[in-house]
């Protein structure tokens, strides 16, 4: 009989390593939101059935001033750095989405946090840290692994920059989740950076058209 730990390793490898590889091979940039929501639904069901899962992780547990202020300050600095980077390397792309397609940009700003950020938060933070983080011996290793699997979840875009940027973002979002104990705070941070990417001219790296 397989031990519980060994079963967890098989689950972890299947969900966070094998599945992204299969998606990159089979989907190759095609819309994948249905698969993402299926994974999020199964993850949420597993957490819901687990009596050891603290559902308060889905709430804003801490005072706004102790979380929101540093989160927004960090975002302001990093977003400014990204804007400068795009302005230097690809000035023709800077703010091209809101300038050229303002109606579509507004829709993305409204629906991206719900349709993409929410399911990713369930799969890559709530499920990962509750069910699979105990497989790794230290918080630092868990943080790096969480960022790595979040990055691999974007493997189907077949773009090195996408993987690098999502690894950096994964470090930020996982760190926020570990420090605040709140999925909503880490999802808010995820939404801020995702919306910024689409706004400043890097959104082409994060949708299925990036492959083409």
Notes on the structure:
The chain has a domain at 65-212. Helix content is 73%, strand content 0%. The chain is built from 8 helices and no strands. The chain has helices at residues 4-26, 33-49, 64-89, 96-100, 102-132, 139-152, 160-180, 183-200. Helix 3 runs parallel beside helix 8 and helix 6 packs across helix 7 (160-180). The protein is globular, with a radius of gyration of 17 Å. 28% of the residues are buried.
Primary descriptors:
single chain; 212 residues; mainly alpha; 8 helices
Count of helix runs: 8
The share of residues in helices is over 70%
Q: Quote the beta fraction.
A: under 5%
Termini gap = 46 Å
* Series of secondary-structure elements, N-terminal to C-terminal: HHHHHHHH
Largest sheet, in brief, is: none
| DSSP, total strands | 0
Mean pLDDT: 89
- Overall shape: it is globular
Derived from helix and strand composition plus strand pairing, the structural class reads mainly alpha
Rg: 17 Å
- Residue stretches low in confidence (pLDDT < 50, at least 5 long) are none
Record the SSE blueprint.
Elements: H1 4-26, H2 33-49, H3 64-89, H4 96-100, H5 102-132, H6 139-152, H7 160-180, H8 183-200
Summary?
This protein has 212 residues and is mainly alpha-helical. The chain has eight helices and no strands.
């Amino acid at each position: 009989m397989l031990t519980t730990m060994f079963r967890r390793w098989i689950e972890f490898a299947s969900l966070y390593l094998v599945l992204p590889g299969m998606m990159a091979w089979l989907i190759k940039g095609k819309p994948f939101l249905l698969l993402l929501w299926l994974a999020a639904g199964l993850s949420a069901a597993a957490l819901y059935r687990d009596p050891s899962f603290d559902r308060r992780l889905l709430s804003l547990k801490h005072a706004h001033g102790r979380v929101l202020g540093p989160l927004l300050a960090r975002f302001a600095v990093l977003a400014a750095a990204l804007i400068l980077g795009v302005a230097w390397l690809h000035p023709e792309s800077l703010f091209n989405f809101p300038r050229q397609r303002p109606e579509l940009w507004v829709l993305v700003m409204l629906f991206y946090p719900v349709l993409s950020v929410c399911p990713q938060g369930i799969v890559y933070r709530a499920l990962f840290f509750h069910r699979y983080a105990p497989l790794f011996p230290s918080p630092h290793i868990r943080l790096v692994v969480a960022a790595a699997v979040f990055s691999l979840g974007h493997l189907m875009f077949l773009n090195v920059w996408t993987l690098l940027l999502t690894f950096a973002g994964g470090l930020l979002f996982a760190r926020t989740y570990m420090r605040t104990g709140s999925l909503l705070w880490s999802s808010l941070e995820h939404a801020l950076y995702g919306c910024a990417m689409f706004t400043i001219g890097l959104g082409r790296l994060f949708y299925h058209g990036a492959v083409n």
